[in-house]
Structures are given as structure tokens and as C-alpha cells.
Amino acid sequence: MLAARGADVDFRFTEEQLMIQDVARRIAQEKIAPSAEHHDQTGEFPLANIRTLGENGLMGIEVPAEYGGAGMDPISYVLAMVEIAAGDAAHSTIVSVNNSLFCNGILKFGTEAQKQLYVRAIAEGREIGAFALTEPQSGSDATAMRCKAIKQADGTFLINGKKSWITSGPVAKYFVLFAMTEPEKGARGITAFLVDGDRAGFHRGKTEPKLGIRASATCEIEFADYVAQPDEVLGDEGHGFKIAMGVLDAGRIGIASQAIGIARAAYEATLAYVRERKAFGQPIGAFQMTQAKIADMKCKLDAALLLTLRAAWVKGQDQRFTNEAAIAKLTASEAAMWITHQAVQIHGGMGYSKEMPLERYFRDAKITEIYEGTSEIQRLVIARNETGLR
Q: Residue 262 belongs to what H/E stretch?
């Protein structure tokens, strides 16, 4: 693994890490990639493939075995996510939310009963989890949320409000929800809840028509006098913002891994194409301008992978990894956008055609620069960590 902070560097993976990578690659090649075009065109949620991923431990990679997961480390998560994303980005989005945003937060802040009830079902792939933070008027500024949870005399909470851009919202059973319990306290007045999508007071909006990752169903959700029980509070009251930011750090490693998978798929397709496609009597890969693009694509791809492995390694050491995750996410997402752009350009008209997957890679790559912290937010995080200035 790639160590950090003056430690020795060892790039070898363990047998267990290589094993889960191989499992993810096999499923991606045999199940996910062959169905990617269909799911992209129809927007149909790939439930059968998600069930297969769950049965093989890939919906709870870092979840301990006692809660139904694979019990692996963050490096394993990166390796598996890259393989799944190379098969199809939409599938990897679903996997990332379940692993990074849903299970991770409950494992870190939940009670034993909450872990058994919520994490096990998700890790085993029997149910789908979701993360509800964003609202129509609050994206990067999460503290501007209007969704409220008012504590009642009996200790329950009455929740009202709307959340938007909820990945897996149309199909999820359980949600990690963030709502204002004491608005006058700002960020310190946000509390996290575990909610059930089948309960009264919970409503799902229309599925969003998206540019990319189209099989990853996304919608608004609305709460109208939804009643949450005291034991459905995640962590302590008023600690929701802290929980959300910590979970997003882990989520950024997942999105960096997704970006790498998309970029790798585009790069490998381009390598094959420049060897076969001929112009002026020779393969186009022999032309210097094409070779320059290939070299830059490879450098950006490897840099993104190594930075993401570093972030995962630091997380696995139980050290603070906010900066490393932001660096990985920023580098990998912008690399994915650049590499897919160049891949389309090199393929010319065929790159623009839906007969090849290049245009899908291009469309899918864009979202990695936006969700779980835009590139602009990543730059703020990195700069503030480096300068100590706010």
C-alpha cells in the first residue's frame, strides 16, 4: 500500500485485497458491463446486479462480518470500487452510497441495535440505503437546510421538510437523514436520524432525468409530520453536521475510486483504438499528438490512483484523512473528466456516437466533479487545511 507522512512505502497488496478486487472485476465484466448500455438507455435500476454485489460482500466491504459485511479495509474498498466503476459508473454510485455514506456513518456513530437493524440489511444487499443531506436551496452550504425535526413531549421527533438529489431515493428502504433540531444554533443544531421509507409521512418525488449515471435512481424526498423515535437518532443530538462531514470524507474516497474506474475504462478503450485505427497508412497511435495525449492520460490516471490509495491508507490507520480525501477526490474527478474528453476526441465521430461507450464515460465522469463536494469545495478544504486560515 501507499503509506504517508514519512512512513515506508510498500505498493504490494495483500491476498485478501487482491481477492476482493478479483471478485469485483469478475462481476463487473460478467454482469455489470454487458448490461450497462441497457440501464443507461432505460434508466432502469439494476436491482439484480446489486443483489449479486451484496451476496458477494461488495455492498458492505468495510462492514465487519458480524453485521453482514466483508470485513475488509479501505484499500480493498478502493480496489473493488474501481473495478465496478470500470464496468458501469451508475452501479458504482449505488455501491459508494451504501458503503461510504450509509453503512460508514452508522458503524461509527450508531448503537449496537442500529447496526444490527440497518447495517446488516444493507451490507447483505437485501435492502438499499440512502443519504439525505442536500436540499433544493442548500447544496455546498449544508447549514442552510430547512428540514426540521421538532422534539415532542414524549421524546419523539416530528419531521417536516424536503431533501433533493437523493441517490437511490426511489428504491431505498432506509435513509440517514439530517434535519435541524435547534435552528438557532446553526451547524450545532443539526441532528442525524435513521428513517424508514415505508413509514407514514415519508413521500418520494419524481425520479430525476440525469445527464449521466442514469441507472442510479435519484429523486426528492419529502417529510410531512414524519414521526422519528428517540432510538432512531444517530449519534448525539446536535452532532449531525459533524457526522455528515466525517461521512463525506469517506464518501470522497469512494467517488475518487469511481472516477478512476471511469477514466480507466475510457483509457483502455482508447489504447485499443489507437492501435487499430489507421490514417495516412499507419495506426493513429503512431502520431506524436496522439502519443502525447496517451502519455498525459496515463500520468493523470496513475496519479489519481496513487493519491486515492494514500487517502484510503491513512483512513485505515485511524488517522484524520480529510485533506487526503479532498486531494484524491479533486485529482481523480478532474482526471476522469479530462481523460474521457480526450478519449472522445481521439475516437472522433465514433467517440460522439452512442454505438460506443465513450460518450457514456464522458457523461458519467462529469458528476464526479460535483457530488459529495464540488471541485471548488475540495479546493477550499485543501487550502484551509494547508494554510490554517478560514
A: helix 240-276
pLDDT value, residue 141: 87
Question: What are the grid coordinates assigned to 286, written together?
Answer: 503512431
- State residue 9's pLDDT score: 64
* Whether 130 contacts 168, CB under 8 Å: yes
**Which DSSP letter does residue 186 get?**
G
DSSP state for residue 97 in the 8-state scheme: I
Q: How do residues 244-293 score in pLDDT, each as one tens digit?
A: 999 999 999 999 999 999 999 999 999 999 999 999 999 999 999 999 99
Q: Give the H or E element holding residue 305.
A: helix 288-316
- CA-based radius of gyration for the chain: 21
Based on the fold, state whether residues 272 and 377 are members of the same structural domain: yes
At 336 the three-state DSSP class reads: helix
Neighbours of 348 (CB within 10 A): 13
Query: What pTM value is reported for the model?
Result: 0.95
Domain at 122, CATH number: 1.10.540.10
Collapsing DSSP to helix, strand or coil, 145 comes out as coil
**Type of residue at 27:** I
Do 228 and 338 lie in one domain? The reply is no
Domain that holds residue 144: 130-241
What is the pLDDT at residue 193? 98
CA distance 242 to 75: 24
C-beta of residue 94 within 8 angstroms of C-beta of residue 216? yes
Q: What's CA 335's distance to the chain center, in Å?
A: 16
**Grid coordinates of 303:** 496519479
Q: How many CA atoms lie within 13 A of 22 on its CB side?
A: 7
Range 184-207 average pLDDT? 96
User: Phi, psi at residue 134, to the nearest 5°?
Assistant: -65, 145
Read off the pLDDT of each residue in 65-94 and give the average, rounded to a whole number. Answer: 97
Residue 11 has a pLDDT of 82
Mean predicted lDDT score pLDDT of the chain: 95
Phi, psi of 40 (to 5 degrees): -65, -40
Query: Catalytic amino acids?
Result: 372
Domain boundary residue, one of 208, 241, 274: 241
Give the pLDDT of residue 142.
83
| Domain count for the chain | 3
Nearest to 340 by CA among 281, 272, 245, 261: 261
